[in-house]
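From the shared-data thread, chain only:
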Amino acid sequence: MTSPAHHPVFCSIVPPHLLEHLARSADPAIAAVARRTLVADAATRTARTLPHAASTSATAPAPADPARPRRTVYDAQRRTELPGVEVRGEGDEATGDATVNRAYAGLGATFDLFLNAYGRDSIDGAGLPLLATVHYDENYGNAFWNGEQMVFGDGDDEIFLDFTLPVDVIGHELTHGFTQHTANLEYFSQSGALNESVSDVFGSLVKQYALGQSAADADWLIGEGLFHPNVQGTALRSMKAPGTAYDDDVLGKDPQPGHMDDYVRTSQDNGGVHINSGIPNHAFYLAATELGGNAWERPGQIWYDVMTGGTLTPGTRFDEFAKATVAAAKARYGDGAEIQAVMKAWATVGLPTD
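Structure, as tokens:
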């Protein structure tokens, strides 16, 4: 079931609180790049809220074969006009640009998960073409979904590397499109944190599916490999251990909580959408590792059923989402290990469902 259309929101992988911290760096080069990225993000975010804003993204026809994606990768050539110059279309040979090829492969990996695990034809369920622009702006330190396409920066090679490097970043951002076409969770407070968490969940599942990893083998990190080697951190977020992804003199410390007792009340970051997402993230990790096997199967199916089942509202809160996963587990699997694992996971993060 698809929720009524709303203006798409700007959703980026690097949270504004982290960029704001970098913008206060004593290193003028790092601070300048962070400020430039914040300004660019603010402009794009504002553009998405304007009524009747004209699209600047490319469009492509729906694929004739629902078993195949329709990918198009563009090169912004370090400018900000979207989509840029087309450099690789569906079925084209690999180019000499590794960034282009990684973006193309990541779009395909995300398509493959949704089709093969859940029978969904692209992120909208109706063959939506998957579009991406690389080499966006100068030293741009982010990647985002703008409601119509993916956009990747090259990073500054001081804090962030190329944003196409982690496939889960690509899966994360495209999942914002999946959410846009299903539960349409508002990008504020708890519903916004759920929006971010669902993207982390399926972003991680894209990586696990592509690598053939079980829940036990997965690292459960979001954005692993994105930081420059000099940064004291492993990733942007950890679903296994929220709050431990980085602790760096320049970046600061990962602020994510993993339990409702530590829920962060803030007016920043749309009410902490990238911060408090650690709580539902950890619940999914706990359910997946409790059940074992491949996380995209039983736990992923339960989360997918909730997102597509038509029971959520745009303003859904954590406790409502938790109860919806319990109901979905019961509906699909009955009173077995699945419902017990889901209930135990939510209780462990401070959201009992009974």
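The radius of gyration is 19 Å.
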